[in-house]
Amino acid sequence: MKLEEAARRVQNFEDGSLTKKLSNLEHIFKGMGAIQAKELCATNKLDANLLSASFELKKLAGQINVVIHAAGILASLPSLLIEGEKIEYLSLGAGNTGKQFDLETTHRIAEFKFINWKGGSESIRQNSLFKDFFGLAEEETEKDKYLYVLGIEKPLKFFNGKRKLSSVMSKNIALQSKFISIYALRFSIVNEYYKFRENNVKLVDIAPVLPELIEII
């Protein structure tokens, strides 16, 4: 099924409000037998094609974060690169690409985090942010180190907070092992390590470079 058709089928099913549509269907189907249910499904186009369309969109949704990451980096480059600076490599895809950072140029190494911080529990996002900061901070290079984020307030709140490092690294054994091999038990909370390394990595808000994104911060 083509993506356009899948989107149209799901949109038609939602009919403006998915919550209202589901509530209405729950009411309509109450008390129905097999024959009546079959007729109602046919009338409302509630069939395998709708399910197939939903799976197509779910498959796409699984790739959206990758698209956001790649598009964000590429759209940022013209504004970030300075005169004489050349790109040595880009890592735009998900997973292990064999490249250590999202961007390396003749002048800098950089990681990009296009996270739409929503408030509440942000532990998974925080864990990922810390991993990138640590990777940059510990890299031995004369190049500038940049961690580009979408909105600076919440990343700074995390880095200046008192969340335990054991919690931040608990689901990344490789990261935890590397951290301990360097620092042992020297640091116990995020703020302690960040204060030690904050001058080694430039934490930069990417939103001014991409003003179209400011509304979602």
Could you explain how this protein is built, in words?
By secondary structure, this protein is an alpha/beta fold. It has two domains: 3-46, no CATH class; 65-216, no CATH class. The chain is built from nine helices and five strands; from the N terminus they run H-H-H-H-E-E-E-H-E-H-H-H-H-E. It has a five-stranded mixed beta sheet with strand order 1-2-3-4-5. The radius of gyration is 23 Å and the shape is elongated. The two termini are 34 Å apart.
How confident is the prediction overall: mean pLDDT? 91
Strand order of the largest sheet: 1-2-3-4-5
Question: Measured on Cα atoms, how large is the radius of gyration?
Answer: 23 Å
**Low-confidence segments:** none
Would you report the number of β strands?
A: 5
- State the separation between the terminal residues, measured CA to CA: 34 Å
Helical percent range? Answer: 40-55%
In short:
With 217 residues, the chain is of the alpha/beta class.
What descriptors fit this protein?
alpha/beta, 2 domains, 9 helices, 5 strands
List the helices and strands and how they pair.
Elements: H1 3-14, H2 18-29, H3 34-43, H4 48-80, E1 87-90, E2 103-105, E3 108-113, H5 123-138, E4 144-149, H6 153-159, H7 165-168, H8 173-183, H9 190-197, E5 202-205
Parallel strand pairs: 3-4, 4-5
Antiparallel strand pairs: 1-2, 2-3
Helix pairs in contact: 1-4
